[in-house]
Every structure is written in C-alpha cells, then in structure tokens.
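Tutorial sheet, problem 5. The two components below are modelled jointly, 329 residues in total.
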Amino acid sequence: MHFFEDIEVGQRREVGSFTFTADGIKIFAAQFDPQPFHLDEAAGRNSLFGGLAASGWHVASVCMKLSVAYGQRLAREAAARGEAVAVWGPSPGFRELRWIRPVLAGDTISFASEVEQRRTSDSRPEWGILQIRNTGTNQRGELAFSFLATAFVPRRNAAAV
Amino acid sequence: VRPESGFLPQLFNMTLSYEDFPTGCVGTFGPRRVTREEILAFATEFDPQPMHLDEEAAGRSMLNGLAGSGWHLCAIIMRMMFDGFIGRTASLGSPGVNELRWLAPLRPGEELMLDVDVVEARISNGRPETGIVTFKAVARNAVGQVLCEMITPIIVRRRWPDAAEEAR
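Model answer (structure tokens):
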C-alpha cells in the first residue's frame, strides 16, 4: 500500500470487478439480511428492485474484499522492489453511503476509489488522514454504489523511525 | 394491508408500517454472541487482513488483538435489526447509510446488544405511499462499550396513505 506522501487528491484507482451470482446473493442474505427480495427471485421481481437483489451490505463487503486484494497486490509489488510497505490503520468509519441502483443476480460491478481529501493528523503526526470516495459501477456503466471512507495512512518519515 | 395494493403474500404477515415508527426509541435487541469462528470465516471471504485472521499479527496491530472486520459488524447489525423488527416491517429497502462510526474493535466471544431509535420519519415525496424512517443503531458489548454507531434511512410502506396524496 502507499504512504501518505505518495497519495494525491484526485488519484483514481480501479480496484477490481466482481459478478454477483444468485447463489452468492442468497448465501449472504440468508446469514445477514434475509429480506424476501434478497432471497427469492419472484419476491425480488415484485419489489422496488425488479429482480433478485444483493443485500447492500453484501455489495459493501465485496468492495472491501476487492480493496484488500488490491492493497495486498501493491504491497507484494513494493516488497519485491525492496521498498518499505505502508500498513494502513483501522478506519474510523464512513459517511454518505448510497445504494444508488440495485445489484441484481448476474450484474458485474467494477469498484474504484478516488482520494477526495488529504490532510495530516494534528494529534498523531505519524499519520495522514484521507477521505476516499469508493464507487461501484455496473456493466452498463451506471453508478450503483458509493461511499466516502475515512482512512488513516502512515507517513513515510514515520516508517523510517 | 389490502390485497389490491400489490403486496407480496409474505408481506401480509408483516405488521409494522411507517405509522409504527414515530421519532423516539424503537427498542434494544440482542444479545447476539459473535464467535471466533464466524469472525475468521467472514474475514477470510471479505476482509483477509492479518488483524482479522491471525492472533499474533493482530496483537502487533493497532487493534491490539484479533478483531472482527468492521463490515462484519455492519452485517451483524443488519441481522440484529432484521431479527428485532425489520423482518416484520413492510420494508422496501434502504437508500444508504448517512454516517457510520467504528468506535471499538469487535472481539471474539463478545455478546452484542443493539439500541435502535428513530431519529426522523417523513413521508416520501416521490412515493407518497411510503415513508422514510431514519434509524440510529448503536451496538455495544456486555460491558456497555460502544462498538459501532450508524444512521440509516429505510423505506417503509404506509398503512394509511392519505386519499389526497394517493390521488396526486
């Protein structure tokens, strides 16, 4: 992963794509969000979603899954080049999460992230704080999912200590 | 609920409507015990970072020990809300989450309680047969430490849409 100093506002990263299957949607829903429109095709068709729809928390969890894989790929590449690897801190939260369009069985969502704000931490000078807009776009190019995450990112000079 | 309203058969058993959610306390739900096994299973699939998977690595992390993924905690809160009231509410889904804060790590073996309040309820402009109920959900552990707070609107069918609004 990148250090604070390597990150600029406006940087966009394509994080990866994921196809939501009917089985995957139902397995997640049965465990965490068993509303009829997430479990049953007919109930989904008759709902506002117009088809078997993934739980919004499933979409968010897949976004995390792809972000972690992307970060781990960057870390491996940095390590292979003999560079220091930045370990990001735990996130304190997010805001403005929007399930803009339903994610239906068979949809492929491409996730991306873009840095909207970047500042140093006053109380912890070894950390920077980022506001990152994460988005998911379906195979028709329609925005389906978006949220603004807060992330703690280590500063490069702190890693040298 | 009238048959001609187009409700699904299973919604006939769902008794809670927009009118049942005035501003104020909805209730406290739980306890929901979170096991180490389910923390590892969720993290393996969705958030395979060392702090969620490996005791030793987690001990060296900022979380000071194995902790569940924040997204796992979100999913558990969703299930607690479902079991608590959404499962018998004429819910049409949610447009999103206004704000969510992860305040303390989710530890294996924790017994979660969920306090739910309605912070705002209003009739939808676009779909006057529905209302938008905004909930605040606060998850805490057995010693009262708050782990997560979220504010999320849910679209709920109205029981008695006004005739004037229906005719619009």
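Marking note: Helices of chain B lie at 36-46, 50-53, 55-60, 70-84, 163-167. Full credit if you identified this.
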